[in-house]
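Hi R.,

Here's the chain you asked about this morning:
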Amino acid sequence: MQFQQLAYFVAVADARHFTRAAEAVHVSQPSLSQQIRALEKELGAALFSRARGNIALTDAGEALLPLARRILADADTARHEVLELAQLRRGRVRLGATPSLATGLLPDVLRAFHDRHPGIRLIIEEGGSHDLVRHLARGALDLALVVLPLPSPSPALTTVELFQEDLVVVSSADDEPPASPVRIADLEGRPMVMFRHGYDLRDLTLAACRAAGFEPYFTVEGGEMDAVLGFVRAGLGIGVVPQTVAARAGHDLRVTPLARPGLRRTVALAHRSDVAPPRAARVLQDVLLTAATRPPNPVRPRPT
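And the predicted structure, written out as tokens:
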């Protein structure tokens, strides 16, 4: 008994017509009929009654049908499981992330994933949440790390909250230290280095300053994360960055917490709702969820 014979048998049972069944499984009608006859011969019983052009299941056919469906379904499941296991030895994961998350969260996460699955190629695309959502929707990414709320919420995406993270103030170690903790109002009139348009952090910082009744003063604006940190190191102004980024910024930057209630952002993992991520992407998702259960330590001011 062959899987192909069972598949042809199920097709005829569903269509109750040999020609239409042959079309459904993309074989010629004589080939399909030949395989059904071979299956009947092997089982020693007719599976279909063929009276006046009408096709009906015999008692033997009725008994075989649910078993055949189950065998084919189990074979399909086994095929997919083996394929997915193979995908963990080779393949790729396309992960989008905002630049701050690529800098602060991903290095340790990707190292843990790579140690377990060295054959998986990791393709990282940096961008703002708005751009990452668009790339997800058109199938260019498997997963994306985004900041909630999304600028354009989409029912076609599923988001899972990973963690909430404090923002902190970074300044050059050579500059006069700010008061600790820093109030949002303390930022008024103070030279600041600001990210380019489209950065979630830019929008969050601007909204907080405006809510406090002032427009921030930018000495330099338009940079990416690494550039902003470099400008701060050079003494061009202070910056407001995520805690995970500040933890990796090095000792040439001073890190100062914001006074309560401070500023926080919500980080989430997003994927398309209509398509399940590949097996390798789901494993990476588990690694990210595990990392999210270990939030960064509270920021303490570094000694001057």
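The first helix runs from residue 3 to 15.

Let me know if you need anything else.
M.
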